[in-house]
Amino acid sequence: MRKNPLVSVCIPVYNNEKTLEETIRSVLSQTYSELELIVVDDNSKDTSLSVIRRAAEKAVKDGLAREVFDLSGRTVSYKNPDCNPAVEAPEVDFSGLPGTAPGHTIWIYHNEANLGMAGNWNRCLSLCRGDYMKLICADDLLDPSLIETEEGYMEEYPGVLLVQSDTAFLDMEGKPQGFYKRYKKSGVVEGKEAVRHSFFTRDYLGAPLANLIRSSAYKEYGGIDPAFSYIVDYDFFVKLAVHGKLYIIHEPLNFFRLRSDSNTGEVLGGDQGEAYIAEHRKLVEKYQDTLGLSDAQVNRSVRIRKLMNVLGGVYLKLHLGKR
User: Fold this and answer.
1) Which of 33, 100, 177, 253 has its Cα between 20 and 30 A from that of 84?
2) What is the CA radius of gyration of the chain?
3) β-pairing, 104-110 with 67-70?
4) Pairing between strand 67-70 and 176-180?
5) Does residue 127 contact residue 40 with C-beta atoms inside 8 Å?
6) 87 pLDDT exceeds 70?
7) Residue 134 near residue 209, CB atoms below 8 Å
8) How far apart, in whole angstroms, are the C-alpha atoms of residue 21 and residue 56?
9) Strand partners, 168
């Protein structure tokens, strides 16, 4: 018998052999008792899949997980494979797969063809069977109390679609490099309010590891929009936020590694800065009518984003010696 609602934590993987094991153990070290860890290798060219298998076996041996289900050699079928993940959530046919089990379990999948970031993130989300779900990148870390804390607020406030916590930055050696606070308020906040404020200041909603998602909201409003390349997480969380409420915890319960070669590093003053700005405009225009924004406000949001990119690039230079 399951004591608590099941929480699904997904790690989309592509060439992350150096950091994967630490990230996997971070998830499995959670104090929350009912958790499935879903790891999906996107046809990596390095030894990531071997690292996943080895780390999973070690986790069971060390008592961090009860069981491993290695489905990396098995094709997973979809009930509606032609659906648009920007509009509706792809649905997996679980009838031929093992059922969920109490405790911490690990599920390993492998994509025969590389799906790219948006495609693999959607694949991860579609494989979740929990009441709540979280995406984390393969070099991120979680405080042991994170899932238990966030799940508690989800249970307490049924109208909340996302629970967010502050983020602590680390370099690749694990040294602290500052903090990133979510929206200025604490507790329950109207999602549209936080999104509007974010469009005119900085991205308070992105960073997958900082968000616990109500699975019913994902199923109703859909997954990652493949029309975006650099801000797929920002768009996804904005899409959910405008349909409900957030719960904001001002405590750094998750840890984001700063890397100059990451997607974040490339857009913050990097080679893809202009492409990111174009995507930001596309994002704001996508929700312009929902938030009641004028064309002048859209343009102002873009100007602010350009400034924040410059400041972000300076931050990376100071903390990582970028360029």
Assistant:
1) 100
2) 19
3) parallel
4) unpaired
5) yes
6) no
7) yes
8) 8
9) 179, 255
Cα separation of 155 and 46, whole Å? 40
Distance of CA 114 to the CA centre of its chain: 19
The answer to whether 109 touches 39, Cβ cutoff 8 Å, is yes
**Can you tell me the distance from the alpha carbon of 317 to that of 289, in angstroms, rounded to the nearest whole number?**
37
pTM for this prediction: 0.90
Q: Which residue has the tokens 């990652």?
A: 224
Distance CA 180, CA 319 (A): 14
Amino acid found at 39: V
Rounded distance between C-alpha atoms, residue 190 and residue 140, angstroms: 28
Type of residue at 221: Y
* Closest to 65 (Cα-Cα) out of 91, 39, 37: 37
Confirm if 232 and 137 have CB atoms less than 8 A apart.
Answer: no
Angle (CA) 219 225 227, round 5°: 160
Only one residue has tokens 């990111």, namely 276
- Whole-number Å distance between alpha carbons of 160 and 131: 13
Q: Are 249 and 185 in contact (CB under 8 A)?
A: no
Check residue 199 and give its pLDDT. 97
Whether 322 has a pLDDT exceeding 50, the answer reads no
Show the DSSP H helices in the chain as ranges: 20-28, 48-61, 116-126, 146-156, 191-199, 215-221, 232-241, 263-267, 273-286, 288-291, 295-320
Span 157-196, pLDDT tens digits = 999 999 999 999 988 878 878 888 999 999 999 999 999 9
Written as six digits, the tokens of 43 are: 């046809």
- Distance (Å) of CA 64 to CA 4, 56, 186: 18, 9, 32
